[in-house]
Structures
1.
Amino acid sequence: MLPLETVGAGGKVARARALAASLAALRSGGVEGVMVDVWWGVVEREGPRRYDWEGYGELVRMVERAGLRLQMVMSFHQCGGNVGDSCNIPLPGWVLEEMKSNPDIVYTDRSGRRNPEYISLGCDTLPVLKGRTPIQVYSDYMRSFRDTFCGYLGNTIVEIQVGLGPCGELRYPSYPEANGTWRFPGIGEFQCYDKYMRASLQQAAAAAGHEEWGRGGPHDAGEYKQFPEETGFFRRDGTWCTEYGDFFLGWYSGMLLEHGDRVLAAAEAVFRGTGAALSAKVAGIHWHYRTRSHAAELTAGYYNTRRRDGYAPVAAMLARRGAVLNFTCMEMRDEQQPEHAGCSPEQLVRQVRSAARAARVGLAGENALERYDEAAFAQVVATAASAGLGAFTYLRMNKKLFDGDKLAPVRVVRQGHGRRRRAGRRCPAATPSSRTSTSGSSRRGRRRRPRRPPPPPSCSMEASFVAPPLLCIGTVLRAPGKGSVYMIMRGVCRLQSFIVSN
């Protein structure tokens, strides 16, 4: 991933010369492409439907010149207040003004805390943004993006990741770190107390024949920093496994799924026929996974317990919209987690992999935290082999990535089992494509990506190792005369592309 502030609050590319050099270095090392957030708060900052794509246009051209590909994230959330956030990019000013006049358009917890990270899904279909619904606003934004960059879609811009919530993930903001509200491994809190969510809950409760269930969320669900056994709702045989618990969790998770489906339906309509793939990110909430209730997942909107698979419905929804499931925490191992937190990222990844396979939806991955050590990357390679990843996005590109001492242990897959020439086919992610631009674009005619130069011939391979059968060999390349170590991946196998992202 590129740095979060690659295109800053003023709409300009930050440190353009340094970025161009970094892109060239990544390309010479064999990296497929990069990912960047396309911030709503940057592009539409001047007012409704006043889009400024200038900085992103410059970035797209830089990536094209470097011979790389680009994943672009439609980031409808704010940057700031979460793990790894290195800058502050709020939602557009005119949206913040609407929030001041109507605070209920943002997520709200039981204590009345408002969270301005993302607009509440409770008002998805209501004209709360100067006469437009949030879904209409997102759709208009994506349509403007498509019309501006249609000449690049399908060749340089190969994927559109659609933001669906805080941090771009399909979830509720149940564990906000801002102002010390939440701390790992707290269970988080339900975010269903704005007037629009409460109205929906009341309607669902009445339909279920229990109007008393519509008065609010569970009264015994505890607070952000608590553990499951400290609450009546999440403890071993708590309220979560009662008829009421099933009703509430079904409604809460169902609202999230409907939101994801609505936004992805809009994206599908906008980008159909452009050649760019769609994807959506699902959060890797691995703490308290070993408990019966999976409390942290429940407050985030994933109705996943020891008795119920909460990721199968998510995968099925993504499959209906033709979107790849992008999952985090691929670098984590169970043994590295604190015992008291009940973590199991490895079991969680296996469960999500099974859900994706059953739904026949593509699966991609990324690391949840910045890691530059050998153990983390070895886990990524092992996970890629077993999970059948179509792509892996590495978080993130910064100075550490080009520090030889930090990156030296990292081995990226170079050669698939049985070798590419025996496979007799090329992976889709490695095949350049071109398309004819549609009307309305400032770039017309047929565009083809420039031929990619081969890696520098004087590079030397170091520290290769035998990986699981599907991946086989990993290598690190060192550029001649430089102290930086660059990553390379060649060949097919299940892991089709390696993307550097933020």
2.
Amino acid sequence: MRNKMAARATALALILTLSTGGVLAATPAAAASGQPALGSVAAGASGSFELQNIQLLPDQDGNIVTFTVGVYNKSAADLSLVDYWVRLKSKTGHTYTVRLMPLDKEVKKIGANSSGQVSYYAKVGSGEKLQDLQVQFIKWDFSQPNSERILGQVSVPASYTGVTPTGQNADFQVGSSELRASTEKFTNGKNEKYYLPAISLQLENIGAAAVTLPEVKFSVRTPEGLLYPLDAKNAKDLKISPKETKTVQLSGAIPLKAGEKGWELVITRIHPELKFNTLLAAYQLPAVSKPAGGEAGKETQFMNKSGLYTAKLGGIYRLPWEDQDILTANVTLSNKGEESLPIPDMTAYFLLDNAVKVEAKLVRTGKVIGIDPGSSLSVEALGKIPYTYAFKEVKLVIQEKESDTQVNDLLELTAKPDLQQLPFVGLGAKYAREEIGRKAQYTVAEINSYEGLSGSIVSAELEIENAEKRFAPVTGLVAHFQMKDGTVFPASVSDIKKTVAPGGKARLNVWAALPKGTDMENVRLLIGDSVTLETGEGKQGEGQQTVKTDAYVRPVTFALPKEKKDVKDKLKDITLFPYTVSMSRINTSINNDVLTLKFDYDIRKQLLTETAPEGHKLVLVFEDYKGNKSFEKAYELKNWEPRDGKSAEQVTDNELRIGKKENFTIQLQDADLIFKQRFLDKYHLSVYHEFQGQRKLLAKQSIDWFTYSD
């Protein structure tokens, strides 16, 4: 009998002890889950035991039950734990072996006027339910037949879940510190087979020491007790200092048959010694976060396995394209977190009036491979519809491609017709684009019209300033002239092959044939970034003219300035951008059958400005007042650059060059002109800017024959 009692006493000493030393430290009476204690049992006049919490988790061979007992000693003497015992029973009649957690094996008594906690575990049958369990508290009493006196028992109430309610924090112990878990955001998408929960979990260190998060598991538990694991981003070895809060992104997939109501977030850890899951915290997930915004100009958020993204719809626009219309939407994805995010593998479609689905292509115009903290990425979605199709409402649905056959909805963005006005840039104002790698400012510098026998063309001079810190190519553009009544005329855009220096400029010609008499004050220039649907990328830089343009994105319209039609009466400071041309000492002479026209010229070029000189010419037109002689001479601007390092003075051919040159000579054979010499009085020398075969008069000077002009 003595041996039996000694064995029981030894077992009790092993069970009812803690790792904090010989005496348990004082602890609060509230249960760790944040719920009130389940019940208490008196241990004499000045002591008591309290069942603070109890949990049941599935295991390979059944279930694991863990529970915590609070021990209170209000007497002036130590309370010996060797004198007491606990037993776990089931309403089905089973009794289960209870063991102390390994950390709770050192303390053998509770100090005077103090309290402590003791944690236990037991393996129970797979059919047991938490609400069927009872914890008995026993005192060794050798006067009893079996040497045991039952002090009382606490049954788990039918309403008890051991789960922290929604809206409360779940606190749990990690080492010598304590963490507080709360849900910042909870979304739940779905596809054809699964719900796709995404949880932004905040962990706050409410202890006094820094803690490194151990290897824990996060799961969703359904009302049936089924556990579904969640992937945790950046949770491994996460270090949290006192009073610091870190965010862990959780995501997973739960079969639709499991339902989506009553979910709990369960945080567990494989015990390093016992090799089974122990519960750290469990709490009721809040209602699914309803995305705010979703309309143009308003931010909304979505989550996936990689983290939390902020999205904003710039607008959904309807644009002309050949015999169709383009639907295009600009979406900005931002990272407001503390770690970089990858770019999601996304697809999209437009939904017209909640009925008609239009597949969309996503295009990234910025040069980024990820989204750094505090930065953003611009994404363009585009689809095509018949230009005659009318609709009242349009939505953009963005999905994430999980596999070749599986996509998941991420967010839905909405725009109404009154939100689809294109961005407009007023007279003299600049349009700034901010995408990384393509920062630039756009403005319409001037308008020029060129007349011809077969018609006329209008050209808008679009100036682009490189706002990057590196040389950058010019983004390929698509352009239209848009009339006030909605009529559009497709325009051509000159191709700048060279890269533009930081702070430098490029001047593009955007031209089209417009009806004669068109009032340009009622016309707007519509431009957008050209894209090819084959690659889903914007076009830019040298050689891009060989790539087929399928559409355009990022539309913006410009007011057009009035055309300057003043004609200079002197051939001085004539502008053919980026050149300025001046002619002086113009004179004529006739020698036998040769007419000679000579002049000095000065051609200057504006630096740090790239242009496309192809198709541009300076045309000199010589006309005698009385019609005795006329001729013209054309000089292509693309030939004006110095060749072989030679300046204008060193060039002996009959081409104009940048720089200064004296006695530039033009000679023509005319055997009859010498006989008309006495009738020669005055002539006009005119300068035209010829573009695409059409001309605009820039200057016209009257000069006496055989004399020098100013």
3.
Amino acid sequence: MEHIIKTFMRVLRKMDDADTLIAQFPELERIALSEPAAITDQDRRRLLDLPELDIQTANLAAVTELDKAQLLERAAKSPDALTDAEIDLLWHRFWHDVTDDEALAAEKACEAIGHDEWDELADRLARAREPLYEEHELVAFQNAPKELTWRITADFRARRQKELERALGNAAQWIVRIWEEDLRDRPGARCGYATFLDPSVKAEMGAEDYDDYDCRADGALLWAKMSIRGADAINPRWLMQRLEWPTDLVTSGETAEEGREDLTTTFQRLRESFRSVRDRPPKEALSAKGSGLVEGLLRNVFLVVDRDAVKSVSKHTRSVDDMWVWAIDPDFEPNTTPSSGEGVKSDRYQGYMRVRLQQLVKNFYEMRRWHADEFSMQALWEAAQLSRDQLFVSVHEDEAKQWTLSRDVGSAIRQL
């Protein structure tokens, strides 16, 4: 118990001697638990770590017009009616002008002995103290930090709401739809994609080169989101969920070409893995619960990052318009008739395509989220054939053919 007692305000301010109180604690504990009415007021203050009566009275008068009983009742029954100064006084058990060192003493002691041992000692002290509290006193001390935390979070929520309203006021219509339809009433939901990363890429590149790729890719997406009106509203909820690469899938390391047999085989195996994850209960973004896709992520497409996708995002890449990633249709089945909305199935279309990296947060996302019935993955692949290097940009021919030499924001991103 010595570690906790040494953090008492009475000890820190030299009203009590730590060694004396440590030695007397077992007896004070016994009396408190067996004969609480027999304990003296002075020993009650020592055990509860309260200031002397004259100091307590002066501290009360400094922050409130209420007497002690009135303040305790208000804190117990209507904590929202407390002033910030009253909350601070109750939080610190009637001590005033608590310094940073005094406030952090318990935290440092906890770190020194470990949380488990600290919690055991704190529970023991709480049991000894409980019979000694006056009416409403314990609940008042408990409610003060709760009320302060609520006010801090309420202030944050109010500021965030104002920022959100400001961002949405000038946002692109599809950004507004993401917020209103997918995010606003679902705090655990996210927007974005599920992604597979070929594990051989990181192993062969080394940590430093892979981190360079990761930073460049994140930077390209950030530039794109910053250039879309209102994207600030959804940025905190954007997620690229990394899925586990199947252990039985080993890649060849050769340069990828659309239609190559082993590439098609790889993507078919990843489809199976994605569908198995998609069929599980949704994963909660704010906890470890669930093993499926995080709620809100697109379920009709997933991304794959392999060696060639990584090579497109390097210091040697001329423009962000040359950066890309594989997008895979999870429901495509080779050698079958076209699905609803696809029309005539192309012999060249194999259920996957390459997408400009920055279009993941604009045209491609909008197409897969709201226009999948109108524009199938095959239709998007066909639109990509009009673009430089056959990377999807847009279903509109004028945008599809755009390319710009830029290291930050590519073509068909900025909105006027």
4.
Amino acid sequence: MSSRRAVYPDVSEILARKERGRRNLASLPFAEKIRILEAMRDRLELFRRLREGRVQEAERS
């Protein structure tokens, strides 16, 4: 039985980039954070409508 060690990719740059992004978002004014949330909500609404359309279409079949 060979004892192979798992080799994991180096994710340090990914984690550092995420931390920079979090710090950037934290530094934004409150109004800008709200604008970002509203834009996200608008995008999610599109996906919700598409999903509901597929459900209604499946129910008709």
